[in-house]
């Protein structure tokens, strides 16, 4: 069983804020970034959802944990 390493992760603050993963690292030092959350997840201004916002999202989309995990 092989394990795939998670991509490098960065947190931005300033004019652009939020959690991102590095998609591409160029030889000149430039990085290509993508949001760390899935595209289907709601965006909360670059911050993590509060527990209440997360629960509301889960309830709205009928997301249930896999068997044996909840």
Description:
This protein is an alpha+beta fold and 70 residues long. It has one domain. Helices cover 14% and strands 24% of the residues. It contains 1 helix and 3 strands. A 3-stranded antiparallel β-sheet has the order 1-2-3, with no helix packed on it. The model has no long low-confidence stretch (mean pLDDT 77).
What is the topological layout?
Layout: E1 9-12, E2 18-25, E3 31-35, H1 51-60
Antiparallel strand pairs: 1-2, 2-3
Task: Write a compact overview of the structure shown.
By secondary structure, this protein is of the alpha+beta class. It contains one helix and three strands.
**Low-confidence sequence ranges:** none
The assembly state of the depicted protein chains is: single chain
Percent helix among the residues? 10-25%
**Beta-strand percent range:** 15-25%
User: The biggest beta sheet, please?
Assistant: 3 strands, antiparallel
User: What is the helix/strand order?
Assistant: EEEH
Structural class of the secondary structure composition? Answer: alpha+beta
Shape: elongated
Kindly report how far apart the N and C termini lie.
26 Å
Radius of gyration over alpha carbons? 16 Å
List the domain count as a whole number: 1
Strand order of the largest sheet: 1-2-3
Compute the number of helices. Answer: 1
Mean pLDDT: 77
**How many β-strand stretches?**
3
């Amino acid at each position: 069983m092989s394990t795939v390493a998670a991509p490098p992760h960065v947190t931005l603050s300033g004019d652009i804020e939020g959690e991102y993963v590095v998609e591409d690292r160029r030889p000149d030092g430039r990085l290509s970034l993508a949001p760390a959350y899935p595209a289907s997840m709601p965006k909360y201004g670059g911050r993590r959802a509060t527990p209440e916002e997360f629960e509301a999202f889960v309830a709205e989309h009928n997301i249930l944990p896999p068997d044996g995990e909840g």
